[in-house]
Amino acid sequence: MSTPFPLFPPNASSIATEMDLLYLFIAATSAFFVVVVAALVVYFTVKYRRRHPTEVGADIHGSLVLELTWTVIPFILSMVMFIWGADLFFRLSSPPADAMEVFVVGKQWMWKVQHPDGIREINELHVPIGRPVKITLGSEDVVHSFGIPAFRVKMDAVPGKWTTMWFTATKAGTYHIFCNQFCGTKHAGMVGQVIVMTQQDYEVWLGGGRSTVSTVQSGERLFTELSCHTCHRAESDARGPSLKNLYGSTVQLRDGRKVVADESYLRESIMNSQAKVVEGYQPIMPAFQGMVSEENLMQLVAYLKALKAAPQAARGK
Amino acid sequence: MTPHAVERKSYLDEPHGLAAWLLTKDHKRIAMLYLISITVFFAIGGMFATGIRLELLTPKGDFLSPDTYNKFFTMHGIVMIFFFLIPSIPATLGNFLIPIMCGTKDLAFPRINLLSWYLYVIGGLMAIAVLAMGGVDTGWTFYTPYSSQASMTNVTLAAMGAFVAGFSSILTGFNFIVTVHRMRAPGLTWFRLPLFVWAMYATSIVMILGTPVIAITLTLLMAERTLGLGIFDPKTGGDPVLFQHLFWFYSHPAVYIMILPGMGVMSELVAGVSRKQVFGYSFVAFSSLAIAIIGFLVWGHHLFVSSQSVYAGLVFSIITMLVAVPSAVKTFNWAATMYKGSVTWESPTFWVVGFMGLFTIGGLTGLFLAAMGLDIALHDTYFVVAHFHYIMVGGAIMAFMGGLHFWWPKMTGRLYSEPGAKASAILVFLGFNLTFFPQFILGYLGMPRRYHSYPDEFQALNVLSSAGASILAVGYLLPAIYFTYSLVKGQAAPANPWGAKGLEWTTASPPPTFNFDEDVVVTEPAYDYKPPREVPQHTGRAGHAFSE
Q1: Domain range holding A42?
Q2: Residues in chain A within 8 Å Cβ distance of B531
Q3: Is the Cβ pair A41, B317 closer than 8 Å?
Q4: Which of B65, B236, B266, B441 has its CA 20 to 30 A from that of A129?
Q5: Which among B317, B279, B410 has a CA at the least distance from the CA of B11?
């Protein structure tokens, strides 16, 4: 990064080279067309410059062959770019199942990071090389956007919902984190660093003793503090459905719909509990909108995801 | 025909007085009122741009405070888009030329035309009031819930200004559509219309279908902000992404409101400076309509990383790619028009050549952003800033300047300084590229938009950009000087200084109040340049006059 005019950011993730290739492909195609158009226009301007004040141009009206040529070629090229871009996007939207999960919450004007074992950081994110990392993003206030140019990834943090992104870091080093969506006075100060470490260094960093309570344990504590356990019990006469093994299962709702209990469903059922009520239960749960912060919500959901029990019949009844 | 343009009474001469101008129903005078007003806003928007480029000379935020900087880029965007670019070509050149190109006396609804100018002025005064009261800091995009809940600035008044100005745009579009349908001169069939009229027709469709949506969106925003209705803020049950959908449903087509008229101007200019029929007339005409229609179906490409569904993103990506096709069709047809033309080296050609280069780069860089995977890296970075400035400044403003130079003798009856105009075109072209090309690289390096300070490694490119902006500023100041000078001391313009075809060149410069002395009957297609002798039947431009 010491050259005065670098053309690429550091290449530090598994997707970066592919992103650069697509960028270069479109850049080369564009350069070709810019040169062709510029050459034609300049050449015609010189070659056919007016030599006599009364002169007019040749009586030419068009050519169907040429029209088809410059319709079909741009069409084909643009479709190649579409397919290439869509493929890349799909892969960047599908985190591997074994990815390490990290929660990130944006708030004016900082990034709050929460690792699975409970370590928290502000404006810093430590990750190991070679391991896929899935980030679940939330926002406490306005829309932010979590971008890491060295990894070529970015995702908006939208209040009221969670979004996800993922990457696999490939090169040790310290790279920028930027907020890319304008969020107020210190938008330009909402920056941080992602620190990519070797697996060993990462273990050492983890063992730094800074964490005593894991995210799941924090979630369990909240579950009790908020008295969730008084209704959501395993007994069959409980006022709320049991939450064991809920994550990833299919839930039958009162209105006849079936939904998969993913993170968004869990989040919504806590914040706005009347939205999707499980069949066989009354809509008596209070909404926790405004009572639980995004971070606590992420801990609660981490706890719910960890709730495993002996195999049971399908949820919902 | 004898060159007696100066002796006769033109639309500029009577009736006299300020009141006669402020209450005029003459489309040409209203065009001039618009020209003066948008020039004022261009200067205001340019001052904010100057502040931005000065701040970004150094990595530290040391010139403006963060809040002031945020207000600067917001006001730059609001003023340039709503009060300069959107009305620029339609309300000035469109207003002036559409009735003349249709061979008629005025627009279909002259009073509504005047009303549209007043609405624009009221909206503009609201924007100026926002400035006086300390500005607004949401970005011109007004994203919620920042704009509805968090911002402490004059969001409601700014939104109201854009809301009111929007109605001026709707009325103008409505007036143009009715005029083109109902008021064409006998013999002026659709396929004899100049391509500028086709482009303005397509633009008008976008104006009347798209603008009501921004009006609704801004109304909802104002309702949430002032009355606390829960529409976009999740804390009250709203959805912030809904705002983005509504906003871009208008604001993406608005890009075509800005560039389609520029494309129309370019078709006229290329034919005029080459004295040749536009190559592939019907392809150029229909590509305008294609862009207008496809342009309504691409808004979601602004939301690829906003939590929009991946499948919705796919559809928006492929439709966005399709815009490349009619844009390429136009570009190649313009280039082909110059083939075997008689290309003048007078000043309008300089703007044409500049436009072709900049617009081509602007259009092609849109492909990077339409490819949804690559957009993840480029979204909300300086790449986007560079791309849309290439389209809006390199495309729309280059075309506007080219059109202004081409039709200035017609509009004012005066000739301006040719060397000055060429110098301006060259400075704008060079300054523009130096300002905005480095921003493509900055964007891929990752520099986010709307940053008041930035890491040191981005400084070199930002310094280049600011240096370019100072050249660009000189390029834009020059026309202010030589155009003003031409009004005072400029040589009188003949009816047809370029020896070009088109109804506007058959009437005097400046035209009489009712445009033509006799009723117009059209018997030939547009751009009907016949080989020697039959053609330029008018006096040549001073300096190389020729006899018939």
Answers
A1: 8-47+95-211
A2: 56, 58-59
A3: no
A4: B441
A5: B410
